[in-house]
Amino acid sequence: MTLPVPHQPQPSSPALTVLALGGYGAAGSYAVEHLRSRGHTVTTAGRDATRADLVLDLGDLAAVARAAASADVVLNTSGREDPRVVTAATGAGAAFVDITATATYIAGIEALDLAAPVALSVGIAPGLTNLLAHAAARQSALPLDVAIVLGAGEQHGAAGAAWVYGMLGQSFVDPATGSPVRSYTRPAAFDLPTGRRRLYRTDFSDQTTLTTELDRPVRSYFGLDSRFATTSLAALTWVPGARHLPTSIPMPGGERWYLQVRDAERVHGSATGVGQSRATGLMAALAVERVRAAGAGVHHLPSLMSIEDVDLTVFG
User: Residue 160's pLDDT band (boundaries 50, 70, 90)?
Assistant: First the structure.
């Protein structure tokens, strides 16, 4: 199998017109701030008239298409996962970038007949994890494990909290074996900067994408920086109805996140930072600047850049 060759660093992007759906939220606000600092024109859009530059109901697909028609790129950080929104935006001629980590939503987008480029896997997980895994695959032919530890103490938005709780009790299909796996089960131990951690299988989309791209088993393991919070998720996954817990329930922890990619022999790559929402926003902004150079269709982050193109020190 021939693996993709790392992309060469690209020059600064020409000024773009960007429509940022939910661009005032946890991750979106960081992406918008960074893009504006780079000289791009960004219009935030959403239903909150007090925070959005443009009031826009994403359920009104005609309105989405009209708004997208005046943009070079549409960035979706709203948490709304509707392939029809992608079709409306790309049908109007705009490229599309989405920070989703939901495998079923990504599969839905991949099934579309797209008229413009769409960038997926553009945050930290998926996103940075994909870049780290591709780098590891150029050094090793073995199956890969991806460790994802997020800060439990960060206020990373209702959509992010709902996503973590929403996996409780839910099963997904292991992309390597085809067997069902309940989220927050089948633990594995990882040696991280904070010590040895017990992390759990969860339905991160990077494992599905990477298993196909790299032609080998890739498995994602997740935990929060708080051992107590992580153990609580592993217990709650067996409690009926736990996925409907209020997302406002606080969990102990900080704001630092960790990523690691390893095989059975050694660790191949890692990254860390403070604030996953900020890191997700910065990574999404990088994708916004690169996506228009790609052809129509879906492009995961490793087809737009390599890990060498990312300054990992900016994450803190």
Answer: low
Output the pLDDT for position 1: 39
**DSSP conformation class of 4:** P
Q: In 120-196, where does DSSP find H-type helix?
A: 128-137, 157-166
SS3 content of the chain, % helix, strand, coil (to 5): 35, 25, 40
**Residue boundaries of the structural domains of the chain:** 17-121+278-315, 128-275
- Identify whether the C-beta of residue 101 lies closer than 8 Å to the C-beta of residue 124: no
Nearest to 64 by CA among 28, 91, 39, 40: 91
Tens of pLDDT, residue by residue over 76-100, are: 999 999 999 999 999 999 999 999 9
Beta-carbon-side half-sphere exposure of residue 248 (alpha carbons within 13 Å): 0
Hey, what CATH topology would domain 17-121+278-315 get? Answer: Rossmann fold (3.40.50)
Q: What is the sign of the dihedral through the CA atoms of 2, 103, 107 and 96?
A: negative
CATH number of 128-275: 3.30.360.10
